Description:
This protein has one helix spanning about 100-105; strands spanning about 40-55, 60-75, 80-95, 110-120, 125-140, 150-160, 165-175, 180-190, 195-200, 210-215, 225-230, 230-235, 250-265, 270-285, 290-295, 300-310. By secondary structure, the chain is mostly beta strands. Strand 10 (about 210-215) and strand 11 (about 225-230) form a beta hairpin. Mean pLDDT is about 90; it is low at about 1-30.
Amino acid sequence: MKLTALATLTLFTASVPHSLARDDTTPATTPDDAPPRLSAEVTFGGVHRFRADIDDGGRVAVSSAAADLKLNYRATDRVFLAAGLRYGFSEYDFSGSTGFGGLDPWDQIHTARLNLTAVYRADEHWSYFAGPSAAFSGESDADFEDGLTFGGAAGATYTWDERTFLGFGLIVTSQIEEDLAVFPIVRFSLPLSESVTLRSAALELGAAGGAGAEIAWKPDDQWTLAAGAQWLTSRFRLDPTGPQPDGVGEDRGIPVFLRASWTPSRRASVTLFGGVLVGGTLRLDDSDGNEFAVQDVDPAPFIGAAVDLRY
């Protein structure tokens, strides 16, 4: 079984709530300040990955944008429900007359994801979560049903205080023309000093995010500076007119990033980030998931921004 989404540190993106632009290290499953009965969070942003060479010929650049809507409902003091809806768009710009770039294997990729989560807070330390998810990822003219995946996750979080917690669990999900995947959830926050925290975190890099970790420094109530790395993977159904009709594309790598987040109030934050994607790989499969071509990509710089609004 090939686990294209496997990572040692994995975030369950349907956790309540989670945002790339938010710097609250309190685990969302254990709110201590009486959250409102119903709350909403909107995040939107974009990222540009600059042009990089492909090993066997050609070059590639990627521009992405995404928007998230999260709804959180406090059913009781112990039961919390959440729904998350995400849409992402990535435009790949291949160039060159030879190699993988010359194939021009795909261009515009659309991704949509729905997560539902239920959280039960057993006591001041333990909370448990579970929920299903569904997603579509494919080119504009790809068959919708062939680009669908379904999954679910369950796990637990133990909280020592508002800055220290450990969460763990499992995700089970289908994949496009791949075997069923099972991989771990690990989320944590460990204070190293009054202003420095080591924690699980990931930037939602356009249409694809991933699991990762960062060291964050919070010099005051409004600013956070952080450095980290994450695993990125995106697998998507292709349209019927490319070099592999109705095939499957895959883009993966390891973004190493720096970010700065400004939070002027509890209702808004702005994040600027940049870094380099290393270990990049592009893969093109036929319609049955058999490998047709796979190539490494040189390190690619990227920059991006995101805005997070909470109601």
